[in-house]
Amino acid sequence: MPVYEIDPLADPRWSALVESHPRSSIFHTRVWLEALRRTYKYRPRAFTTSAPGAVLSNGIVFCQVDSWLTGSRLVSLPFSDHCDPLLEYPHELEILLSGVVEKTADKFGYAEIRPRSIHLERQLHFKAWRQYQLHVLDLRPSLEKVYSQLHKDGVQRKIRRADREHVVVDQGRSESILQEFYGLILLTHRRHAVPPQPLAWFRNVIECCGSRGTIYVARVKNRPIATIFTLRHKNSVVYKYGGSDNRFHNMGAMPRLFWQVIQEAKSDQLLELDLGRSDQNNEGLMRFKTHLGAARSSLEYWRSPAFGPGGMNQSLAFRMAQSFLTRLPDRLFRLAGDIFYRHAG
Question: Is the pLDDT of residue 319 over 70?
């Protein structure tokens, strides 16, 4: 069966497939792909067995990442926690992945896919290379039931503390709230010695995603102390980014923000809160997501071949730079992120 390549930004059939497929996510959408293209110049490419002019019944989407530092590759998708191949029948997976390998052989160091609900086998030319944990909160029970499943000390008590401290939650997509969000992101990334993604990335996500994206900011006496960024797609809301001022952690602002998102999601009859991936060695983050009542599952990333030629491994490049990042002033710290993330997708 032949495999065809399409441009998901130009072919209207891609959006129709994403809207109709039960496994699609915000990361499959044209708006997310456009934000990646605007910010990092990545070229979206999708592969399908559907002939030109036919209804698109399946597809797997990548971004082409070209870097003089880390090499050229196909990634499905950069800065996206997961991105399932959108299939009509299970046997289509081997056909599509074989077609991707055949069409891109000798052009890229590797192709990488990040399926949420599909397990690959070695005969598909792909090998598991990295594993994370994915946390998803089921929102189908009543709001009272969801609240009862929050950890009593780690979340419920802190929500009550935030209310006693008069923590106020604001939300929006304005430039002013974006600047508050980014200021807290800078603080958080400096604590972890990780450069922040460019401000232009968050601005492009807001502009491209529109009402699908929301920034929440928690304030005390009009001072921003914690923030989260969420994205909606169909019946799901995704927690994508968060930051805080650690001088105010005892006020419970972060649990209060998540409780706000949960209440709004229940009001809008959404079915799940996707809390995203966690590194397996980040016990604190995994514990917090579990305390929110989320179920945990394994999330594997796959590459073909396992290690490709050309370019420096992006994790190695980051570790080499990490030792001096915390010493940089804000302007250079931000510049490091502007430079690094283009090569790290």
Answer: no
